Amino acid sequence: MSNPKRIRWMASCALALTLVTAACGGSSSKSGGAASKSTSSGDVINLAYNADMQVPDPDIFYEIEGNSVTTSVYEGLVRYKPNSTEIEGALADTFSSSPDGLTYTFHLRSGVTFHDGTPMDAAAIKGSFERRTQVNSAPAYMLADVASYATPDASTFVVTLKKPVSAFLDYLAAPYGPKAVSPKVLADHAGTDFAQSWLKTHDAGTGPFTMSSFVPAQHYTLSRYDAYWGTKAQVKTINISIVPDISTQRLMLESGELSMIIHGLSLSDISSLSKEKGLQVQRFPALFKSLLFVNENKGIFKDKALRNALQKAVDKASITTQVYGDNGTVSTQFLPKGELPDGMGMDDAPYDPSVLKGLVAGLASKKVDLAYSSDDARNQRAAELIQTELSALGLDVTTRAIPIAQVFDLPNQKAAAPDLLYATVNPDAAHPDTWVRIFDNTAGSLNWEQCSVPAADSAMDAGLAATDKAAVQADYAKSVDALVDSGCWINVADIQEVIVASTAYTNFVHQLPTLFTIRFGDLKVSGG
Length: 528
Fold this sequence. Notes:
By secondary structure, the chain is of the alpha+beta class. It has helices at 7-16, 67-73, 122-135, 168-173, 183-188, 246-255, 267-273, 304-313, 316-324, 354-360, 377-392, 404-408, 433-439, 454-465, 469-486, and strands at residues 44-49, 78-80, 87-89, 92-97, 103-108, 146-153, 156-161, 209-215, 219-224, 237-242, 260-261, 279-284, 289-294, 328-330, 367-373, 396-402, 420-425, 489-495, 497-502, 505-506, 524-525. Helix 8 (304-313) crosses helix 10 (354-360), helix 9 (316-324) packs antiparallel against helix 11 (377-392) and helix 14 runs antiparallel to helix 15. Residues 1-39 have low confidence and may be disordered.
């Protein structure tokens, strides 16, 4: 099973250029904020996106910018616990799977209604899952191995798979996982496209907020759904505008026009804002990494010995400190933290640049083309630091920026691929397969330098088909060991999410794979 490219996310990043994923640079402390200057009360949140989120349809949406809309309006059967890889019920009160990994049974919550008042039941969930496959957009891969659905009664939904898929529950818990969509909306607005036209600007979810206005490329408004099955949100309204310039967003935050900035601030911005009265800095662990992709197909790093020496020549600690500060930690595991237990899947070569220096002396060509993805402003600084390190070892290193749209197309443009590519990336979910199969599999859609490690491919296939947790972890650890040995990927830092917000808000709840947002339904308002 191959995860398709995030075409819409790519387009969004390309529009916002260096602003879109600079979310996690920042400072340390919390302090006060500009809440006293706010033009609205605390129960009205004003946000800004760096780019238009395109389409809010949960079976099409596959970006990062826009998670705060889709995850506030729609819900799935399960979700991740806050800051954890553990899965808990959402619309499903309880759930279980058969020992053979083929059958998943969900017992639904009672008293849940869609925003149009339609009761949520097993038939509605079945129709929602079927629609995802019918629409067949990027997130449809999550249901590709489903054999059938059953609804034994109104509160029970059963999924049978064609073969075991150890990532299946993680697919359902992911921000891009299948969501409940009102059957009335799907019937009333079916048209010839399964209601896609209607859901471009309307919603049909069960979440704590409903979409009261959606004007593409201009603004969106979410309003509290007072008949929500869970605890009623203290926030009444969320207004979202499109402000591509992060400097303008900062001025708006300081003047009180924005309630918070959920991503895009630099280290210096966050350091400065943390000292302002009325503002606070919130940091969250996230499945978000920076890494160096190494090209085994051309240039000097066709030599595996050089790739393995490069692993020891990159000063991860120095890069992490200078580029990410308090908002990142040195990466020691190949996968994002939490996807494998501590001590498994390690990528922690000791820093020893002398090994590469010794090999460089005998090279006929010392030229290295080092590129960085321009979607994250911090990537340039990291690339410059690596350039300095490698130049000191005798290599002739040049750096260049590549727009994110071109980065995504590198697998189709092998001749244009650089020798090294620095980028920041995130998976769809907290399962190892949603990382290694995307970025590292021979057929991976985001295997940008087209490195091939057949032994790793076989191990990840075994892990996806395994039904025992220990076996799953062992298989993916085996896959990771082969990937590390190849020298094609060098993980640098685990990056945090950082939000700067008015001190009018507390109880920030964050989920590891869901970037650029928090659970707004859980947010507490001072005096609320």
